[in-house]
Amino acid sequence: MGGAVRFVLGLDAHEVRGLPPTTTVLAYLRDHCRRVGTKEGCAEGDCGACTVVLGEVDGEGGGGAIRYRAVNSCIQFLPQLHGKQLITVEDLRGADGALHPVQQAMVEEHASQCGFCTPGFVMSLFAMFHDAGAAGRAAVDDALAGNLCRCTGYAPIICAAQKILAQRGADKFDAANKTTVKKLRAANGGETLTVRCNGQSYFAPRTLRGLLQLRARHADATLVAGATDAGLWATKQLRRFGTLLDTGRVAELRRLRERGGMLEIGAAVTYRDAAAALTAHYPALGELMRRLGSVQVRNAGTIGGNIANGSPIGDMPPPLIAAGSRVVLRSVRGARDIALEDFFVDYGKQDLRAGEVLEKILLPLPPAGLHFKVYKLSKRFDQDISTVCGAFALRMQKEKVAAIRIAFGGMAGIPQRARRTEQALAGKTWSESTAAAAAAVLEKEYTPLSDLRGGAAYRTLAAKNLLHRFYLETTGGDVVNLARPAQ
Q1: Which sign, positive or negative, has the C-alpha torsion 254, 257, 259, 261?
Q2: How do residues 200-235 score in pLDDT, each as one tens digit?
Q3: 122/164 Cα distance (integer angstroms)
Q4: Rounded CA gap, 52 and 76, in Å?
Q5: CB 194 within 8 A of CB 94
């Protein structure tokens, strides 16, 4: 047994020893701290009843500002708190018992009925309260998309949220900022966090070199980034992990920068941290990023983790493939740079050799005149997994297709380019007849499965219609009244 997980709980320094590293934050709060305001609703990061807020000193250098973000405690492992501030609903009231402004707004707007979901809503709104960039109804909808309520109909909760945006100011956490920063820096000391208990080992290094050395020694270890997948394996599949390697503290993997005509996205960069840079260069990614999970999931989940797990319905691989992205894989032996589409070999199998980790994604900055679109089809708009995700990148030379890349998720066992369809379009005049001929090729290019999200025939028809929609949007056509192809 070894290693203490050190963090700030509320405003107080806190330390935990002697618990299995796959203990969830939710289980720790309820079973060991008796903080039962945080609820278990789904245990898979969907309902938001378990929402807590994590504070972290912002930026690599830690300039002194604390960034507060909502996460799902049901799928966060306890060691992931190391060096962070954990705030639960019990921490919000003042020393004199006065309600926090977020809580007061919920009371005044009668925004709670049975109360089960209320602490989760309060914590999501608390994070919004501390987000200086949050403004308007869109910010409210985004902040609440990851919280479900069966009683209120949401209207009074939305009213409370709007009141919070209109009236927010400083609170006790702002007043304690300097003291909290000192406590966070003290908690985050040391090179590698090591937690061992009940035959399980958890390592969280701070450098890429340390991660690679650990990977070389623990070939069978499970890598963890945001744990939005690994947390599910623990809570839903009851999987027992022997050794876990946490990439979330590795400085090099959290780096996001432009260099050499590329946007370099470290494998541990979260969706939330990558969103602004991605949408600045590829505006079409804006809606996709907003629909990818909830705020809680985007605050924890990483683009690198989404790629490394190789899901055929992961949302980010299709647009990244269409844009021509590459990935850098690194081990103690050196680095490999391969095209992203080549990383996916077969269902559940990626081109990741022994001792390698995904270091970063290289996304080319778009050339002038590039037509780039991505479309996600799912049963509900917010927080749902794709049935089909299609991405298109087109360069024209006068009226002809100079180059085109098309990639789909949900159409095969891996995210996959439609190479034969691309070939059918290359060099042709970009016209209705050309697009229709390419759709006929696309129909035979994939053999999708039928599942609860959609049948094979639906997926094939949807993919063809997305190609048609892309044609219409790049030529100024009507994208509303799409005619159903003849059966």
Answers
A1: positive
A2: 999 999 999 999 999 999 999 999 999 998 998 999
A3: 11
A4: 10
A5: no
